[in-house]
Design goal:
The chain has 454 residues and is mainly alpha-helical. The protein has helices at residues 8-63, 66-79, 83-118, 122-151, 155-163, 165-179, 186-216, 232-255, 262-299, 302-329, 335-338, 346-361, 365-371, 375-430, 436-452.
Length: 454
Amino acid sequence: MPPPRTRAGGARARTGLVLANRALGAGLQFGVIIAVGRFAGARTLGGYLAFAALVRLVGIAVSFGQPWYVLRSIAQSDERGDPHGARAILQGSIRTLTRTYALVAAIGVPIALAVVLARGHGGAGAVLLVLTALSVGGLAFGQVGIDALKARGRTQSALFLEFSIAPAFVIVWAAMTSTGGGDATIAGLAGAHTLGTLVSAGGSYLLWARDHRVRFGSAKPGVSGEPVAPQGRSLFSFGVTNLLVVAGPSLPQVLLPFVMTLADVGRVGAAIRLTSIPGVLVVGLSSLYAPRFARLAVAGDRPELRKALRESQTWIATLFLPFAVAFILVPEMIVPVLGPDFAGTETALRILGIGQLVNALTGLAPMLLNMCNAEVYVVMATSVSVVGMGAATIVAGATWGVVGAATGYAGVVALRNALIYGKALRVIRSGPLVPDRAVTQAAGTESSRAEGTV
């Protein structure tokens, strides 16, 4: 049977718990910047951030659309009262991901190893390559398992696994090496990050399996039987959108080492990460609102969709306000915490803070469009923004340094989110929310239930 509707008071309490969980993750991400920046310096931080950004880019490319497909499909399958279909969706996604990861590893690792050896990096480069491959696998499989937990309403566990485990491992490693009298190296930080991603991935599947067993036991197939194979269009749109969303903040950190020193990359990366910390809270709200958007779209409830979007705007704007004050008005109070290597990044923090403020005011418009099957527009807008962001950040960074890179990044972030918000309002007002066949299937499911009660 479908999950029960949540009352308003329960929804507010649940949202508060999600935000508290995300505050923990945001604090740990802030802790990574401080710990690595103070214990190892801007150069090591720049190398680690480049590693983490590359892992995230490749991992999202490998999982290509599967996490968001699992999130939407399991939520909709549960809404139709079909737990067997939900389990089959997750199993099919894992099989697809296993084939993709094996293929990418078989082709990519030998090529990357040849490049590493040809450039004379030797054993250290080979170690980083192995860690990258393992971390990519942990992230790709972990994203699918974590989004499956979100679809089941296990938001707290999912968010803790997604955003708190890896940063905690990195902080502990940096602190241990510093306490022991040594310096945290890029390879050591990469190893801690990799271990964290693998623990998160394994934990997500163990929790989902336990949740499914507790909820449904050995439930037989529901009314819809075996789930329909994923739509190629949806998987492509989800994959491209998620990759582009990740490429926005990650690509500059991967490319900037070609035009700036690693120390400057660390300064830019620290500023981007700090101003993106409120966005980590936004991801927590996305985990809560995405299944709600999907269910309201299937039900065709436009007033509730509009209400949900406005709620997300209120939450996010309220959460970002104290950060906006800190980043835009008094960045001089933040920079000294990072250590002496980061002097002079106050202007970059101001610029990036303004860009993220625009982002906060638009709420969860991108996720609403994805859950309402209007993901094509998100793909188009994000594609243009990523190309523009990459070009603007690299060109401005090479010309004007840290401030230039921050300006190029912030400008494109603000423009993209303003355009997507306008589209979300148009879809809620009069656009199609789900394909016609999805509405027909939902109606057929309700008819089957009604006939079964006669």
